[in-house]
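pinned: reference chain
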Amino acid sequence: MTPFDPHALRPEFPALARTQDGRPVVYLDGPGGTQVPERVIEAIGRYFRKSNANDGGAFATSRESVAIVDEAHAAVADLLGAASPDEVKFGYNMTTLTFHVSRSIAATFAPGDEILVTTLDHEANVAPWRAIAADRGLVVKTVDIRPDDCTLDLDDLEAKLSARTRLVAVGYASNAVGTINPVKAIVERAHAAGALTYVDAVHYVPHGPVDVRELGTDFLATSAYKWFGPHLGVLYGRGDLFETLPSYKVRPAHDRVETGTPNFEAIAGTLATVDYLRSVGTRFGDPARAPGSTVRRRELVAAMTVIAAHERGLARRLLDGLAAIPGLRTWGITDPARLGERTPTVAVTFDGATPRAAAEALAADGIYAWDGDFYAQALIERLGLFETGGVVRLGLVHYNTADEVDRVLASLSRIAGGRAG
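pinned: its structure tokens
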């Protein structure tokens, strides 16, 4: 098995060739949207050049378009470990899909029934449930965090589960501080109380293998543009649930969830994204030893396994370096022994600089990182950071390198010491 080498993969990403002041740009903006391989760009262009047609037609381009869509459903089902391509639905993005399906899910609830959301989550897995609760007379309860390490308070979850709980909405990983939740255990607790689960996996999918059947979750949502693809939302749902939920669609619509004309070109690009990840598995992983019922699933598990290992090394290097910078605080899990409980997404603040000023100083050094709350507003408020501009988010992914981490640490040291620029 060839050792993982990000330098061998970086030429596949055209954006990584960008320079600023004669130096390569360092992309730490992955949690807001990753860069994409050339094959994804080519697949989108190829669709427009050769197969651009709506589905349902008797002619060649329409049939080709349908074939691409069908194969993309199967590919993403393998990525997520779904039992069938029919359990994968495409949409505009995770937020829009969640607003859409929340209406169907909540239609099966009664006034007074309860939904649990969490302080740790992106608003896309909170606001839709609050909105539908207001419409249908439901009760929303919020599970708190442990502020010292920004992990979910599982005792609070247990206390708030009740005989009236109908749904638990939880994130797989925090897009702001990187915390990975014990999703399988949460699903088991929810199911024991008779509740459904809706998992926001947008931030987690680029960082490790996902197996929806192993998790046991009823629903799981993600977005391809967070895992090196185009802007496309993905929703997994157990097949039996999709068939029993009320469907809000026009009469001729072929699918109960995918309503309207789909984004064919983005679906073609997403299929190419899965092919890219497969190539990572075959080049650097061990698909023969990876679990999975198809070759593609085993290749994808192998890919995400080696990606996770590489990223843990980067995260350790970053966290060790951050700990040595005076005037800088890292939020969330910092214990090197707990790297498996977090993604390589790290949130920091500075004693002498606002998050926006720090992000601007990083940008001047050719390092692209986000500042703010990233729609994890409840978390940033709970940490007391909202009024001061939130945090700076350093989002590593598998195409980042150890040299880039060292360059980031040098820049952060200058910023913390008041020597930005």
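why pinned: The mean pLDDT is 96. The CA atoms of residues 318 and 406 lie 8 Å apart.
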